[in-house]
Design goal:
The chain is of the alpha/beta class. Helices cover 44% and strands 12% of the residues. The protein has a 5-stranded mixed sheet with strand order 5-2-4-3-7.
Amino acid sequence: DELEARKKTLQQTDVAQPALGMISRIYLCILARLKVAANAAAGHSFGELTALCHAGSLSQDDFLKLAAARGRFMAMAGKSAGDPGQMMAVRATAEQICELIEKHGADVVLANRNSPRQQVLSGPAEAIEHMQKLCRKNRILAKVLPVAAAFHSRLVTDAAEPFREALEAAAFHPPRIPVYANTTARPYPEEPGEARRLLGEHLVHPVNFVRTIENMYEHGVRTFLEVGPGAVLSGLVRQILAGRGHDAFSVDASTGRNSSVLDTASALCRLSSLGFYLALDQWPAESESDQPPDPVFRES
């Protein structure tokens, strides 16, 4: 019962987002210690903050502050209007869903283009319910998601404004590597003001993950390592790039079923087998007496 209660708490937006941020940063510090160097980065929704931090655009302190603020503002989103809205995953092409929305004048938006056959809709609760019925009539699998509000739509506008204010307090730096934005599917601008504006609009604009991955592939990226809890995004990458030469895998491939140490080690072995340099001598020893002089994870 206690475990289930903790899981329920962890699913709350204001808790989940800073938790995701912290776990991702821990993984990134481990990878940095082993000299794993990325040539480009991207995230999905919240993960865009993590990608910007990894690229040096945000300090770790600013990243964690923004992660907590984003979760807090999104948890409160839409409540003042009485209907925070809902989100619904559908198994269909973007063209199919857009045609259905236009035909019936549904008050929903295509919030996430996740893969060629997986989309997510956002909108008022009544509109999502209506859209779910339309999907069933058209034999389209649709499932309402357990989220706090209709993210990446106009219904979370009241979360976007305070988040923009929080961004003004954060120091932005030109990224060391390209960070592909969900909104434009292109690399973030180097100018701090433009970067703030783009990230500030992120909450109310759709996530075009398909185009993001397509653009990264067109620019030469062939190996995609998912950093953070779970393996959903690496699965989406495999769907997007099906039939084209690439590798996509996660540091948490078993999503908690196996030891996180085993999963991380397996991902590192796979990177090494693909020809990437890793400082494997920095992997922690089995016993404390065998530890190297400085076991602290440091970013390279």
